[in-house]
Every structure is written in structure tokens, then in C-alpha cells.
Amino acid sequence: WFLHLHTTEWTKCSKSCGGGVKTRQVECKQVMAQNHVVSRPESQCPSNKPQDRRPCNTKHCANEDLNPAIAVANVTYIQYNASRKKVNLKIGGQAQVFYGTQVKIKCPVRKFNRTRIQWAKDHKVIGNSKKYRISKKGALRIADVTYIDSGVYTCIAGRSSADVALTVKPRPGVFPSSEEIERQHHNQLDPAMQPNGEMPGRPFLGGGDDMSHEVRP
């Protein structure tokens, strides 16, 4: 009777180009009498576990643009309806949303594998977590934003990138603590932004809260 790590065949590469992954199963097996094989917990097998995933087809796709054009929306969005639970934005410009809102930021790009889009907050790359989720189409979802989620979000597609500046504001009738106010102060979108959502000398147009972005002339 002996224990050993059994490996299956590698799967096909998940992508034909642009960077994919091959995987295989690594299982702890024990050979019993009459060559009967049973599965055992992995902790009972040797610690030098073989690799169960590896990169493949890492060359860029022939039709993939390394400098794709990102459709940037250079506008300002301001959320007025505090009862709205979700807000959809496009990359570019600025946005103000209420505390606790779920935010989705789209990054429209052509001739680029959108599963390879990356995101960064304040120049630090972010990945999937309880707070952030990057969809297969490259959109970023931020769950239940808080004041520390204010900042500059960057969509990265190949060598191209675009930003949107996000500010999280208190819900009506809710007063943040002094610590939260200080944190909010350091994450302001634009020091020239007025409390009523207008830029000095530039009246704000289109107050419909169901728009992805509200257009500033």
C-alpha cells in the first residue's frame, strides 16, 4: 500500500492566442490490495505537488491592436436620486455617487480581447475581490461604495488607458464622521466643483438620473 500524487492530462489551452491557461487535476491516490485505488486527502500525500496550471499561447493575436482606441466619455455624472441602487458609467470624465451605491464602469474598446482589460485605482492594479469584480467584457463593478472608494480608476487595454475620477458623497440626511470627512477631502474630484453639482461659469445640463453620463457642455 502506498500513496502517490496522480495527475490527469493537460486540458487544451483556454485561448488560441493572447495568453491562455492549461489545467490538470492533481489528486492524492492510495494503491490498495489487488491494485485497488482509492482517493485520499491531499495532506496525506507528498508535499511536492506537481503544477496544476500553466500559461499557453502567450503570443498576441494577429488581429489584436496593442494600442486600441478607448471610447472615452469626457463628461460629468452626478447622482441625484439617492434611492437608486446601481449606477452605470463609462470611462472618462468625473462622477459623484451616493454612499452605498453599486457602481459599474464600462471601458468600450475595439480590436482588443476585452478579457485582458485590467483596472487600477490611484495607479495600483486591482483584481477580483468582494469589493471589485471585472466582467468578461472588461467592465469594473464596485460593490456598495464607501468614502475610501473615491479616487481615480484607470482602464488599461494593451498600451492604451483611460481614467474616470470617482467621488463618493454622503446620502441625504446622513452626516459622516470627522474622519470620513477628512478622507473625503483628500479624494475630491475637482476643487472647483460646487455643492449643487455645477462647475463655475459652466451650467450643468441634463439632470436625468437614468443616464450613463450626464453631459456637461
From TrEMBL:
Ig-like domain boundaries: 68-165
Coiled-coil features, chain-numbered ranges: none
Pfam families: I-set, TSP1_ADAMTS
Protein name per Swiss-Prot or TrEMBL: Ig-like domain-containing protein
Organism lineage: Eukaryota, Metazoa, Ecdysozoa, Arthropoda, Hexapoda
Organism (species): Homalodisca liturata
Region (Disordered): 175-217
InterPro entries reported for this sequence: Ig-like_dom, Ig-like_dom_sf, Ig-like_fold, Ig_I-set, Ig_sub, Ig_sub2, TSP1_rpt, TSP1_rpt_sf
